[in-house]
From TrEMBL:
Catalyzes the phosphorylation of the position 2 hydroxy group of 4-diphosphocytidyl-2C-methyl-D-erythritol. Belongs to the GHMP kinase family. IspE subfamily. This is 4-diphosphocytidyl-2-C-methyl-D-erythritol kinase. Its EC number is 2.7.1.148. It is an enzyme of class 2 (transferase). One of its GO terms (molecular function) is 4-(cytidine 5'-diphospho)-2-C-methyl-D-erythritol kinase activity.
Amino acid sequence: MHDFEAFLAPAKINLFLHIVGQRSDGYHLLQTAFRLLDYYDTIHIKTTNTGIIKRVNDVAGVPEAQDLCVRAALLLQKHTGCQLGAEILVDKKIPMGGGLGGGSSDAATVLLSLNQRWQLNLPREELLTLGLQLGADVPFFIYGSNAWAEGVGEQLQALTLHDAYYVVLTPNVHVSTAQIFANKQLTKDTIPKTIAAFSGIAQLSTENSAGKNIHDEFINQLEKVVCSIYPEVKASLDWLKQFGDARMSGSGASVFLEVNDAETANRIYQQKPKEYFGFVAKGLNQHPLLCK
Ligand SMILES: C[C@](O)(CO)[C@H](O)COP(=O)(O)OP(=O)(O)OC[C@H]1O[C@@H](n2ccc(N)nc2=O)[C@H](O)[C@@H]1O
Ligand SMILES: Nc1ncnc2c1ncn2[C@@H]1O[C@H](COP(=O)(O)OP(=O)(O)OP(=O)(O)O)[C@@H](O)[C@H]1O
């Protein structure tokens, strides 16, 4: 690992997710609130002068050419004409395809770190546009703070959220995002909400009762459909709901419960059935690479 530098790529959860329309290309227009978590993949990067982009470790289920880290580095190289290269070691901790944005976060971390280490100094707005070519959630991770998002997730506004801890469970199923968005049962014309309405509700911190701070008006509209197709997601959500207002993140399969303190989160987590993978995380206010 000599000469490699480590860069963190945090997970995210969607505190709510509404579908408010559909674009002519079939993509759905969303409203969502993204929250960063202190649960990370670590991307180790060594810059080289060979011009070659190379992943130096195996990642189960992700061939090198499809890895979003490699694709992000190649995209940045092509966009800028940079002659430098990079060796990338991807240390995955965030479950893949779990609605926690791991792949998108890895890609954002590569764009942010190589922009510096290759001394490209592209402005943040340019990286946001590049990031969108790699995935709808990538701009959020480049944005740097918790965010209210619209469009397909690329129209971002900063969101101030109170301190909170999350119990996250990821059932061992692969949910196809495309399959869920294509489901006929999905409500696609929810009346858009305002960031002010969400912020008002999100600021209401409950003193003693767990998980009451996300109001019923702000739900994950993919949750019902996912639960009807994947009983494992429903089971883990039902389990968490014993303790409060649990939600699904993104298009699943991960589910989470927001609580006010680490003690409560750990107490709930310790009772989880052994077959559930999960973790406890603190909500972040800023991306670790973009802290001032
Ligand atoms: C739902 C979220 O997890 C919220 O954070 C993300 O918007 C999903 O973003 P993503 O993982 O980048 O989604 P993709 O893997 O590109 O989407 C797979 C497929 O889901 C459908 N899709 C996805 C996002 C969106 N806003 N509308 C869609 O209709 C499209 O058919 C797309 O081809
Ligand atoms: N570095 C990477 N890490 C994780 N997945 C990757 C990576 N590169 C490519 N992928 C592919 O991207 C897919 C989605 O990964 P990711 O973990 O971002 O999904 P997700 O958490 O469901 O994302 P989202 O919340 O954005 O829908 C994976 O199933 C995998 O095939």
